[in-house]
Amino acid sequence: MMIEIKDYSLWAGGKKVLDGINLSVREGEFLAITGPTGSGKTELCYSIIGIYPNMLPCRQKGKIKVCGMDATKAKPAELAMHVAYVFQNPISQLTGYGMSVEEEVAFGLENRGVEREEMKERVERVLKTLGLWEVRKNSPFELSGGQQQKVALASVLVLEPKVLILDEPTGHLDSYGTRMVLETVDKLREEHNITTIFVSHKFKEMVKRAERVVVMLDGRIIREGKTRDVLSDAEFLRKNGMIPLPITELSEKLREEKRWKGRNAVDVEGFVARWRERR
Predict the structure, then answer these.
(1) I want to staple 4 with a disulfide (CB 3.0 to 4.6 A). Which of 65, 74, 110, 114 is the partner?
(2) pTM listed for this prediction
(3) Do 171 and 87 form a contact (C-beta atoms < 8 A)?
(4) Are residues 62 and 184 in the same domain?
């Protein structure tokens, strides 16, 4: 397993914020984590990358292993060699170290002492992959929100991580920006078999990409399963403070009218295919 969490609890800010978390993530898997605001999603991610306990005061119980390391004891720099984290707001991730996009992306490699020729090759490769080559001389602070998120993504992907954690990475983006960023992640995952954790409220994107989804509430995992099984359960989602997809609610309404059988739909394509079958 790339990530293995056993009986993990976290106390921070004078209260218990994570309670008895058990979770395993396979190499190359795309795992979605969702839940209402304040359910503990970010705290779990911070625990995986070592922000807890190294940068924020806390008390921990249980185990977190990431790429074979004990995340409750390893230094953030050690974890950062293998795990990359992309924040919701790209501005909080941009260092401002360089005047240009390419300098910003090269910053992490310089810190690691990567040879200049290799650094140039890796920066060029990731910028071209992300569609940022044409703006490489621009300041990252002049770019659109979607492009800034790509710069933030490039700055971690250039380090060639084994694990990528996306914490609400498209929260500030419109539908086009969201698609642009996530399609790039898809491409890089396929090329490098990157294990990805996607924290989000955007169920539509989870349905397209995630094999499994974990639902959190009040610091606990309250459900884990195949993405389509979990997200089709409209009653469960509403009961726990989340809003089902419109197509899921339509399926539910049709069931009440005895015009739909089986699991609720979670995408338009699936809905149309099953609707045609019944005719």
Answers:
(1) 65
(2) 0.90
(3) no
(4) yes
